Amino acid sequence: MYDSSVRSGRVVGALYLLGTAAGALSLLLLAPLSSHPSLAAQTLSTETSVTLGALCVVTMAIALALIPAIAFPTVRRVSETAACSYLVLRGVCETWFYLIMATF
Predict the structure, then answer these.
(1) Maximum Cα–Cα distance for the chain, whole Å?
(2) Is this structure's pTM higher than 0.85?
(3) pLDDT digits (tens, 9 = 90+) for 20-53
(4) How far is residue 85's CA from residue 71's CA, in Å, rounded to a whole number?
(5) What phi and psi values does residue 36 have, to the nearest 5 degrees?
(6) CA distance 1 to 4
(7) Which residues contact 75 (CB under 8 A, 6 or more apart)?
(8) What is the DSSP string of 57-99?
């Protein structure tokens, strides 16, 4: 029991760091879009940057979506309602938001 909680805690921590790093990198890659008056012209000139930025957002979405799934057994021991709510709100809703954001 303790072993699996420690292991899942380490995986959750690693996923959190991965998601945070990918999100920060996506901000750096997509920052030039907000500083140029013509979004279409800027997008065409930095197509690689936009593609890598969107890929970072998708990586962040997947990493952050896995956190509630991996933490579910541990959180369920405290409260099954809280575990299900966390899984739905963070795992599903937030992930869809990030994926929609990456496509636009």
Answers:
(1) 56
(2) no
(3) 999 999 888 877 666 665 655 555 556 777 788 8
(4) 12
(5) -105, 135
(6) 5
(7) 68, 82, 83, 86
(8) HHHHHHHHHHHHHHHHHHHHHH-HHHHHHHIIIIIIIHHHHHH
